[in-house]
Amino acid sequence: MSDMTMVEAIRSTLEAEMERDERVMILGEDVGQSGGVFRATDRLQERFGSARVVDTPLAEGAIVGAAVGLAIAGMVPVAEIQFMGFTHNAFNQIVEQLARVRYRSWGSLSAPVTLRMPCGGGVRAPEMHSDSFEAHLAHAPGLKMVAPSNPADAKGLLASAVRDPDPVIYIEPLRGYRLIRGEVPDGEHLVPLGKARVVREGTDCTVIAWSAAVEVVTAAAETAAQRGISVEVIDLRTLVPLDAETLWASVAKTGRGVIVHEASKTAGFAGEVIATILENEDAFFALHRPLVRVCGPDTPYPVQMLEPQYLIDEARVLAGIEKATQV
Amino acid sequence: MSDMTMVEAIRSTLEAEMERDERVMILGEDVGQSGGVFRATDRLQERFGSARVVDTPLAEGAIVGAAVGLAIAGMVPVAEIQFMGFTHNAFNQIVEQLARVRYRSWGSLSAPVTLRMPCGGGVRAPEMHSDSFEAHLAHAPGLKMVAPSNPADAKGLLASAVRDPDPVIYIEPLRGYRLIRGEVPDGEHLVPLGKARVVREGTDCTVIAWSAAVEVVTAAAETAAQRGISVEVIDLRTLVPLDAETLWASVAKTGRGVIVHEASKTAGFAGEVIATILENEDAFFALHRPLVRVCGPDTPYPVQMLEPQYLIDEARVLAGIEKATQV
Amino acid sequence: MGKKAMLKTTRYRVLEITPEDVPEPYSVLDTDGNLLVDTPPLTDDEALAGLRAMMLGRRFDEHCIKLQRRGLMVTFAPGIGQEACSVGSVMAVEPERDWFVPQYREAAGQFLHGFALVRGYLWHMGSPLGFHIPEGLRMLPFQAAVAGQISHAVGLGWGLRLRGRDDVVVVHFGEGASSHGDFYEPANFAGVSKAPVIFFCQNNHWAISTSRPLQTAAPTVAHKAMACGFPGVLVDGNDLFAVYEVMRDAVARARRGDGPTLIEGFTYRLGIHTTADAGTRFEDPALRATWEPKDPLFRIQRYLARKGKWDDEIERAMEEEINAQLEAAWAEAQAEAPPSLEESLRHVSALPSPRGM
Amino acid sequence: MGKKAMLKTTRYRVLEITPEDVPEPYSVLDTDGNLLVDTPPLTDDEALAGLRAMMLGRRFDEHCIKLQRRGLMVTFAPGIGQEACSVGSVMAVEPERDWFVPQYREAAGQFLHGFALVRGYLWHMGSPLGFHIPEGLRMLPFQAAVAGQISHAVGLGWGLRLRGRDDVVVVHFGEGASSHGDFYEPANFAGVSKAPVIFFCQNNHWAISTSRPLQTAAPTVAHKAMACGFPGVLVDGNDLFAVYEVMRDAVARARRGDGPTLIEGFTYRLGIHTTADAGTRFEDPALRATWEPKDPLFRIQRYLARKGKWDDEIERAMEEEINAQLEAAWAEAQAEAPPSLEESLRHVSALPSPRGM
Ligand SMILES: Cc1ncc(C[n+]2csc(CCOP(=O)(O)OP(=O)(O)O)c2C)c(N)n1
Ligand SMILES: Cc1ncc(C[n+]2csc(CCOP(=O)(O)OP(=O)(O)O)c2C)c(N)n1
Ligand SMILES: [Mg+2]
Ligand SMILES: [Mg+2]
What we know:
The complex is a heterotetramer, with 2 copies of chain A (327 residues) and 2 copies of chain C (357 residues). Chain A is an alpha/beta fold and 327 residues long.
């Protein structure tokens, strides 16, 4: 075990994967010389050379499209989109092309591409640099999507993503790059795609989150416990495919649920979580109260002065828990 | 009243709006000389000239971005994206720019742009020409979104969209352009944005759909009636902002619900509908059974030979109704 | 560039393309099949093989249009009149190592590159097998999103280099595609990375109903290479010899590591846009009339005829042979079992399969 | 173009930019402020006004960097060393009719165009008021998405024409942006529609940490205009006079309906990328050293000094005046009431308001 920040876990896993498999390469804006704007690829170009760690021109569409071609040529590209909002600049290449390589070639081609990106706000970044758009990428058949909340999962999910034979969206909690620390298993450590993690067991209410929100939710669960509410916290870890079984089992037990995300509410990923929970009769018939969404408002992510009011804090999660656990 | 097809209703409304307000203009690929690949802008260039009905170069991003600028210059652009899947080629301009003009300028600028596009399959179109991605555009604060299912609404919603001071996504049912006919009020006819329509009243189960699916659902409701199940059919008409009150009232009455869309299931718009229904206690506590989603599978829209198996037909809707109305 | 035009009004140099910077498309044969240069780039046997490949493409398209009118085929885009572009391109590469990345109008070239005729029929029948790439075929499936494949070609070429190979990639697209960011961004990437890619733009003068002048104010598509820092060539796209020659040079350049070339094949859509939308509603018949005599098949036939290598009998024999080939493939395609939605679920990702409906 | 380089190996013309096609950036003043041409494009008073605008921008940036280090400002991108680009651009347009569309590094030009200093501070404080466009100000808010604003400028210029006006639009962006489809697509649109837009690329040699050669293989950004069918100009971006002159001509051209121009201001990021990421980790100090003496302020100061219009006293007075102006604006900005999330909900759309949290 080693104590690491998120960004250290990501960086060292990339390094290990590149060492393990010489087909693994990195491309993106500023990933090379400077090692990425968050230093997630720090010194990797020094180590592996500028052929395998490539500073690209400023064009997200071509980054993703080139990654598709590189993969077909037999490389294993890890492409970085500098901020999640800029996936929209490559959205057709992601949704129509990257996601569909296997499907449209009727299984004959594949695109083992990992697409890394920071997600969310909270660091007073300029507008459009704090967006959360996991719901967009979740609605793109052919893509898997993971969003680790801690360094150990960051390592385990990244290694699994890189080795997956298909494209995986790998979402990094922007405000947690340095702030989130934790123990990380040394050596080989794989977290399987598609498995949620019960962070904390509880009996009164299930709270579901992913990425940076897991920290907030866990803190709220502690406070709730002091108030006599036993909260079960689930870190989805993988958003697509969703680990429905874990959600169903938990809600069947607690009969109450809160889903938390920073993204705006309408058509956000909480809707999918709720609809999925309802697909199971045990979970549905256990429900005492409506499932509650604690999400960003239906506005774009605001400029910095508004951030403190916009961000979801413990108080808002607690309010959600209270709403869900009313009698 | 006049009997019209969908495409006739759209075309004549565009004509009337251009006549009413000389700032209204049309831009897009092939909208001018040929009058659009579905003839929705037929002869409008002849009538209003090539300055107001503009064949653009093949570049969706620039079509939307130019519409933003045109709007700021005081025009009222109606831009066409030839097929909904190609909104992804302009996705950053739609989600980060068009949607945010008012918000990011703190209310000082606005973009009264209507973005028209056909949606859905069923006409044996080439791959990527049958996609349904309303869920993507619904998760973009600042955009409204309508999806008429019949010629009268096509007229009324299009006129409202063009006159709205903000951007409106206007979704046209591709396979209904010529197949869907109906009576259309002559003269001025506005359908307000944000109001669903109860197509058929019923007491046992609420079935919610929009665009081309409304026809399928209505047919299924007839069949269900013969089997003794009284189905209430709701045509959302506007997806954003969602008419929650109408949904709540209906589900509070029926206690059962089915949401139908052609788009793939995961993170599709049905999740938002379900989560919204649960936000109301009357609706929630009335629920006898889980709400059911009848959606496309989690695959890309397939090539033509697979279409008949892929598309949602009456039988699948009926199966959904049966599932929702189990005892 | 631009010196004459602007120096009288400005004190500085303006970078502009002047009329004298715009060449005529390079031709090797005139429309009657006469050689315009000293030596032909292809032997007579090669020319005959090229002609056969073009004829196969033409007859395939015609056959499919007929079948489509009978309701047996889905919407597709025939390459009628443009066959020299894709066939000349493929003749210049080595199918056992080099890649061909089509848009959707290149059936003739695809077949020559090794795409089985039966797969062509299946493609136009709307079968997913038309998109399946068998082991060893160096081709990407046809691409319905305009310009969507160009960045894949760039990544592919770049990746082949990284894997230590000197294979090249040829990607085709239309002049409409050349207005798109999905053309410009990867072309600019290729300039920087010197990816071994030949960008072949078939300027057929139409993007559905949109005419060439509405697409760009640049005098040629070939000049767009200048924005990306590599050479452009304007070639007569109805002249198999000329297309082959410029492709041959561009392939050599790419193979030796000198990077990409943009080739504009100056051609014309003699057929329809697609079977769903002819796109010809406002076409000027006079413009079309100037292009009909430039048919790429006719030109090679005349050339070979003049050398005694082509006559009615040879033509008849070849047509018969092609017909038989087409009929056999069409029969084979029809015999193919229809695909199932269930199988499609298995092709979304290797593991695990989607949660279904 | 390319004739010499390629004719020996090909039988056809290759369209290529040869070294002789690449001009030196056009300068009017040398780095020591000596006039390189007969007549200056600006009078001394105009030069003084331009200098003052550049100094205001410089001091504003410096002040905000200091405030940022104290935690009072958010991340922003200073324009230090590049002020001649935006100031020279705005001097060539008429703020009461023409539009200025910034990226994010053009505070100096924005102020000259009429953007209130207090709004500049609010912008860097992270206030939405920094994005608010008061009635009569012909400017779009700063744009954080690289190249995102370029198509807006094109639509705006095009729309002004449609509305019967001959106003023009100047849009600024960096050389990194010039690799993006959001640059190319609208530039190509503008070529076709002859929109009255001047595309001003500030090539400051860096896109965060990415150096100019990694961005494109084109010899200059100005040459990219050729892909879109309009003229390009390469200008010394540290020379206010030169920038003004080429802008003046481009504005006249656009105004009389002759369409767009792409101007590359050849400059250098003397400051940092942003206050969050200097981007200078691997910058070659030798390269930087060659640029420091080219400071655009210095050059005009020397020019005016030589004409007796600039000395220590004038400088001190102007600095004091600017300082007072900045302090007043900063005080005003701090006094502004903080915005509320509730108000923000009202700015999503005119009606109806979003459903909230
Ligand atoms: C990104 C995208 N936008 C729009 C379309 C619809 N569309 C299909 S073909 C076509 C015209 C393409 O013209 P061009 O690139 O010149 O190729 P051609 O058909 O002439 O071979 C259009 C607009 C599409 N398929 N993809
Ligand atoms: C579409 C997009 N991609 C990435 C970024 C992140 N980013 C911010 S500034 C920048 C570099 C821009 O370089 P350039 O265009 O040369 O402008 P400069 O900063 O040098 O003025 C990048 C990559 C962004 N803001 N927008
Ligand atoms: Mg074309
Ligand atoms: Mg730069």
